[in-house]
Structure formats: structure tokens, C-alpha cells
Amino acid sequence: MEAMVTEREKVREKLIEEHLPLVSRIALKLKQRLPNSVELEDLLGYGYIGLMDAVSKYDPEKSESFSRFAEIKIRGAMLDYLRSLDMLPRHKRKMAKELDSAWDELSAELGREPTVEELSEKLNMEDDEIVDILRYSANSQLVSLTDPIIEGADDYTLLSVLGDDKDPPKFLEENEFFNELVEAIEALPEREKLVLSLYYDEGFTFKEIGRILDVSEARVCQIHWRAIRRLREYLKKRGYEVAS
Q1: Domain ranges of the chain
Q2: pTM of the model
Q3: Of 1.10.1740.10, 3.90.1150.10, 3.40.50.720, 3.40.920.10, which CATH number belongs to 2-83?
Q4: What burial letters (b/e) apply to 105-144, b meaning 16+ CB within 10 Å?
Q5: 25 pLDDT above the threshold of 80
């Protein structure tokens, strides 16, 4: 009996050791999208907890591979930590709502989407402040975008749908919200879909995406913000509760 316990401990230790780099990769990719107030060390710490949880709960008969199971548990532990934080301070949340209203007003007046400069003038703010609000707003939406579409289906989130080229399982195909979500994403302009894919699926920063698209970082923030806003509006019109 003691030998069996020792053998299980060795297997456990080996799995943890082999998958420590996975914790680092997930934490580093996630950190790129978060405010400086979120420490990498905290993400790593919660990721290690997720890895140990994965080792304890893994059932090879229910999950296709330990690596995939561990990835879900690690990311989930980090996101649980982020959910416990206030990702958007109250004053920035207020400014985000003012920006939202100003965007609508200017769009109606101009017959097109306003520029950062036009929004700055409308709100009597500096360009950098507008970009800062857009960035904070993007960060605050990260957690809701990584919540499972359906309870119990941790693999399938809005972000996975944005970048996944694999066919979803049958139970997702038959889910009404999933189909509405896919429609909402497909209805986005190509540039907005590209920015979302580069940011969430590929892990590029706004600055790096700006270089790829040959536009400013501010413009990328604006495109991203508008894409998320379109998705929220699309789904709300169909009666779904969507976080703002």
C-alpha cells in the first residue's frame, strides 16, 4: 500500500514538473491584456493552484488529455482571481459610459464613427485620456469574454469561438445562444474580427496590432471597443443578458 502511495506521488510530481511551463505561458499571455495593477506573480500563484487541482481531479476516461485538462484548470484559477478584482475603477466606469454616449451622439451627427480627436473635443479631454478609457474598458471585459458560453462547457467561451476553426460539439451546435453568438461575430466588419482574433486568440498587444495594420495604437483600441460594443448590442437585441 505504501509503495502504491509513493508511486502516485511520483506521477503527481512528474505531471506538475512537466506542466509548470504551461502555467508561465498562460500567465504571460494573459498579463499582456491586463492593467499594470495586476501582478504576474499573482497570476502564476493562482495558476500553480489550478495545476495542482488538475493533478488531483484528472480522470483520463472523461478528458482527452491531461495537458488540455490542466490548461482549463490553470486558466480557470487565474480568471477566478481576476473576477475577485475590480477591473474597472468606479470613476473610469463612469467615464466609459460618458464615452459611450458621446460616441452615439457624434455618430448620429457625423454619419460615421467619430475619431479619437473628435471624442476628445466632445468630452473636453486629452486624446491620451480617451485611449486610456478605451484600454481600461477592454481590460474590464476580459473576464466576461472568457466565461463559458454554457455552464459546464469550460472549453467554449466567446474568445474560443473567435479563434477556433474546429467544429463545436453537437450540444453546442444545438444551443441557441451559441448560434446567436457565432452570428454576431460573423456579422462584424472584417477589420473588427481581425483585431479581436489577433488580440484574444493570438495574444498580440494593441501596439503590436497597430504595427500589423499600420494604424495607431489608439485606433486599435477604438476598433476593439467598437467590436465588443457591437457584440453586446447584437446579443441584447435578442434578449440575452450581456455584461456592459
Answers
A1: 2-83, 90-237
A2: 0.57
A3: 1.10.1740.10
A4: ebeeeeeeebbbebbbebbebeeebbbbbbbbbbbbbbeb
A5: yes
